Predict the 3D structure of the following.
Amino acid sequence: MAIILKSPEQIEGIRKSSILAAQTLKYLEQFVKPGVKTIEIDKKAEEFIRDHGAIPATKGYKGYKHSTCISPNDVVCHGVPNEYELAWGDILNIDVTTILNGFYGDTCKMYTIGDISDYAQKLIDTTRECLHLGMQQCFPGNHLGNIGFHIARHAQSRGYSVVYEFCGHGVGVKFHEDPEVAHSANQNSGPILKPGMTFTIEPMINAGKARCKVDRKDGWTARTIDGKLSAQFEHTILITQTGFEALTDVYHDF
């Protein structure tokens, strides 16, 4: 495992890209409403990112054709923007990664369309709590695995399952770097956190079973195997000398 400890100059570049990624999610809020197609939201995201001098990291990545991943309802992650029209009561995840001056910022959040069920709201709230509990484990000298340990313990205590087929990852000078950040892990396992590390925490929490299935039609969209809801939040994290900075937490709204 070759974990890259970022220089001050690299950290500043990653921070600027992370801010833009967060700004993109904020900008997209106005378009997340009934009747809007997910492909239309993706186009708005690409326009915004490019207008700010950056490029979307996902477009062209391993053949992926879009600028975001948009995952409604039972889609766990990597949802391909398409002709699906948002409907009242839907929940939706939008995942954005920007490349600004060669540096990457990666974040995602949940959106709600109209009034949603208590069942859906509790899942979203728990997933947000899982992200924050994981972030609290981000300080020098701690084991990376404690992030996943605390996430899984909280999710399972609420009756939910934690997706283990996808994970967080190092990010900053590359789209995907070491280390992998599991959202379910043994306590005090994994490498020691050090200042200069940058990675994502992005728990995917399912209302039903943990496993996923990838749509054969597009080869990307991962859904819950039982059709039950899934939720996800993500921040890009920097380990500092005394703790952490959530580089994508610009608005403190999730």
Summary: The chain has a mean pLDDT of 98. The chain is about 25% helix and 25% strand. The radius of gyration is 17 Å. The CA atoms of residues 204 and 232 lie 5 Å apart.
